[in-house]
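User: Hey, my collaborator sent me this sequence without any context and asked if I could get a structure. I don't really work with proteins. Can you help?
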Amino acid sequence: MKRKPERLGEILIARGLIIPQQLETALEEQKKTDALLGEILVKRKMITEKDLLEALSDQFNIPYITIKYNYIDWDFVKEFSPSLILDYNSFPMEKDDWSVTIAITNPLDAKVLAKAEQETKGLRLKLVLVSGSDMTEVKSRYREHIKGKYF
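Assistant: No problem. I've predicted the 3D structure and written it out in structure-token form, which is a compact way to encode the shape of the chain:
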């Protein structure tokens, strides 16, 4: 039985999005710059941001969604600190009896994950992955909604 690719580069190669030589080039750059592999591949236009997010979704088993046009329950969002949204680049999506779903842009950012978990107040944290442009759009809507309340 063939094993499922676990590393980002392996996933991208398995999907036919990059070739091994491109991965090697990007890994060499990563050693020199400490940038994230996915950022390097997108910056060099080897893959798109959507390709990266879909691969990260598979790698971390986190759903990738589009949120910028979704309905936002502002009463629910108000339960969370402006810092979570504006400083930690996370956005509360929904809540049920056992969990809170929060949108993030980087599943590797331990500080974001810790802050999100802290703000779920004992409920299980469920994550969804969104693009940077989606997060920018929803944060802009958030700023407009809270204008005058915090700033």
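In plain terms: The helical segments are 8-14, 20-33, 37-43, 49-60, 74-77, 82-86, 110-119, 132-146. You can pass these tokens on to your collaborator as they are.
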